[in-house]
Amino acid sequence: MKAMTISSTSVSEEMDGSGTLTAADAPGALQSGSMADSYHGPVKGKLKIVHLYPREMSIYGDFGNVRALQVRAQRHGYEVEVLAHHPGTVLRDDVDIIVGGGGQDSGQARVEDDLAANGDMLRHLAADKAPMLVVCGMYQLLGRDFTTVAGKRLPGLGILDVTTTGAETRMVGPVVISGKFGEMVGYENHSGRTLRGPEQAALGTVLYGQGNDGQDGTEGAVKDNVYGTYLHGPVLPSNPAFTDELLRAAVERQDKGGFEPEALDDTLADEARHRQVERLLAGYDDGGSSVLPSVRDVARAALRRARAMRR
Fold first, then answer.
1. For residue range 212-222, what is the model confidence (pLDDT) as tens digits?
2. Whole-angstrom Cα distance, residue 185 to residue 101?
3. Residues 111-163: pLDDT tens digits?
4. Whether 136 is catalytic
5. Nearest partner of 160 among 127, 190, 118, 186, judged by Cα
6. Burial readout 210-223 (b: 16 or more C-beta within 10 A, e: otherwise)
7. CA 60 to CA 234: how far, in whole Å?
């Protein structure tokens, strides 16, 4: 097994015809940079990450999720190839992780035909337990359908049992949720109201913010290793446990042994997340809250944990 030293990452600056992600796909995000916790051991494996529609559906900084997966996988000792999927091309079947971001209604309309053309492959990959992270607009399109504010219906892939309808009023602001990965933080900016089917699991319970529809107290949707969410930020750098879960699922799906994570220093990410939780949930201290009183006890417990971690 060959050894590698990872002290920086870079992606090709020119489109080479193979779909490799380039500076044109994510301006300003591809410069090399040093890593404080470089990996110097043997290569543990290789992962291929596909970014769906980086030009049409990545307007809220969601490329940062691709970057977080790439860098964190390398720090754990895995080689990474990042590929872009653009409209009019055939989605590869030899991928390990799929990431899709947010976009305007017009961006969703531009990818609609290509998404339908590659729908069978995406459904196959989802059924085969390939990890997927889809945010905002792509979350909506992996559901059953999305109806825009103007009334146009865009059919989805039905991978997640959710339906979304656009509204005139946007839901904008910071979010805290509680779920499998503990407290997670992010930022939402969407007009879509997303309703889950009766058996569709949510990513988490909203402790602060609006979530799927501002009414039912849930955020996102999960089926097997497919995660849909409205959390921007981007979400993965602020929530490293979530990032590692996607990497773990990808490695274990390859059936080449289990995920072998390194002991990474997440002090900065954890500190930032705990500060955000403490700041946003402070209103639960006095027994009051303007958001979701039914989860007051959960929010108070989250607030206590955040304060304890910062002492």
1. 999 999 999 99
2. 17
3. 989 999 999 999 999 999 999 999 999 999 999 999 988 898 989 999 999 99
4. yes
5. 127
6. bbbbbebbbbbbbb
7. 8
Through-space distance between the first and last CA atoms of the chain, rounded to whole angstroms: 43
Question: Would you say 170 is a known binding-site residue?
Answer: yes
Residue 207 CA to residue 295 CA, distance in Å, equals 7
The H or E element spanning position 162 is strand 162-179
Cis geometry, peptide bond prior to residue 42 (ω within 30 degrees of 0)? no
Q: Tell which residue, 123, 120, 126, 146, has the closest CA to residue 57.
A: 146
102 Cα distance to chain centroid: 10
- Counting every residue written for the chain, the total comes to 311
> How many whole angstroms separate alpha carbon 276 and alpha carbon 282?
10
Catalytic residue selected from 85, 136, 190, 274: 136
Give dist(CA 200, CA 203) in Å, integer. 10
Look up the pTM and report it: 0.86
Which amino acid appears at position 86 of this protein? H
Tokens of 237: 């750098």
Token digits for 220? Answer: 């996102």
CA angle in degrees (0–180, nearest 5) for 124-80-4: 145
Give CA–CA dist 291/270, Å, rounded. 24
